[in-house]
Amino acid sequence: MTEVATARRSRITPEREAELYGAVLDLLREVGYDALTMDAVAARTRSSKATLYRQWGGKPELVAKAIRHNKPGNIADVDTGTLRGDLQALTSREDDCTMQQNAALMRGLFMAVHANPELLQAFKELLIEPEMAEFHRVVQRAVDRGEVRADCPALDYVVHMLVGAFATRTLIDDRPPTQEFLSSYIDAVVLPALGAPVD
């Protein structure tokens, strides 16, 4: 972390930061990204707009960090000893209700990302790239354990498979993603594609 980022972050407590992120997510669900303003966040959280800009720089960074903060822990920290166990554990970190709320939120944000280069950049730097790196460590452990061949062509598409299942569940089936659906998808699609044990 740079000295500038450290200086900005040091001005706010973790509890206050969590409160602000929660308010941002509430506003996103209520009005969407385009209608969300720093003024609205300041009013909702009884903050000054200057504090928000000093801490986060702008709306794209604030939203991306709020999404990141809302995620249940570090992906790479999940280590059950098997790839199947790791993937199943990752799907069980959020209950079906939370998953449905987050899926609806992300659908709205993906539309905004395509129309807003600054939001896309913030998502890539603060959300997508760190999560891809964490997920790569989970998959690399499976390779190191001998569960997946290092030259398996599906290795480059694991995240695509999982995100695709999550994102298209509503589009194709007109139903929200659930733990049961994702669990069965892992066993039926992801693990066989990788040549990894299913039991």
UniProtKB/TrEMBL annotation:
PANTHER family: HTH-TYPE TRANSCRIPTIONAL REGULATOR RUTR (PTHR30055), TETR-FAMILY TRANSCRIPTIONAL REGULATOR (PTHR30055:SF149). It comes from the Bacteria. Pfam families: TetR_C_11, TetR_N. The keyword NAD does not apply. Keywords: DNA-binding, Transcription, Transcription regulation. Residues 14-74 form the HTH tetR-type domain. Residues 37-56 bind DNA. The keyword Nucleotide-binding does not apply. This is TetR/AcrR family transcriptional regulator. SUPFAM superfamilies: Homeodomain-like, Tetracyclin repressor-like, C-terminal domain. It comes from Streptomyces shaanxiensis.
